[in-house]
Amino acid sequence: MARKPDPHRKTELALAAFAALRQRGVVGTTMSEVALALGMKRPALYYYFKDLGELFDAVLNAVLADQRAYVLQQLDADDHPVDALATWMRATLAFYEADPQLIGMLLQFWAVGRPDAAQDVLDRARDLVEPVRQFAIALLLDAVRDGRVRPCQPETVLDLCVAVVDGCLVERISRGLDPRPILELFIAQVLLPLKLPVP
Questions:
Q1: DSSP 3-state assignment of 103?
Q2: Which CATH architecture best describes the domain 7-194?
């Protein structure tokens, strides 16, 4: 029975390969070129990744895990649910602002490594967000019940927040727009008015 690759080493290699691909470009890249960029023999690379698609998967998993850790680090358990939601939105945007080319490079890598797996990639990204979304919905429902948040549809509020963040990220890529003013306007005029003063 073949030994399974060490998951930590696999992630290290994936991120190192992604860094190399960001330098040289991903279009037209072969596994042989990735192995050369990593200073390893092609069979050693194939031990960890059968193709560029598996390499992309490992990079995407690492980026999404980093995003989740970064965002969770910004949250304070004592925050009002509406404030926590605003923090989540700001932190998600800030994660990608720290590396403005990250999303564009991921999209290019996706096109090369997983051109026929759009739904799978979207499902994995959704699966990462969904537990956080459900937790936030529960917090908002509790806050509506105890009078800290105006009556609303928490599911719709969460979906709107996700759509605004996603839209901000797309606008940054497609038009080079600074999305922070849009996000802050949404928070100030849509999100924060949901808070009720505590008696």
A1: helix
A2: Orthogonal Bundle (1.10)
3-state class (DSSP) for residue 4: coil
| Residues sharing a CB contact under 8 Å with residue 195, sequence separation 6 or more, in sequence order | 80, 82, 83, 148, 149, 150
Phi, psi (deg, nearest 5) at residue 161: -60, -45
Banded pLDDT at 189 (limits 50, 70, 90): very high
Q: What is the pLDDT of residues 107-151, one digit of tens each?
A: 888 777 777 777 777 787 778 778 888 888 999 999 999 999 999
Taking the C-alpha atoms of residue 100 and residue 77, their distance in angstroms, rounded to an integer, is 29
Is the whole-model pTM more than 0.90?
no
Q: Which of 152, 150, 158, 157 is nearest to 196 (CA)?
A: 150
The sign one gets for the Cα dihedral 95, 99, 101, 102 is negative
How many other C-beta atoms lie within 10 A of the C-beta of residue 96?
21
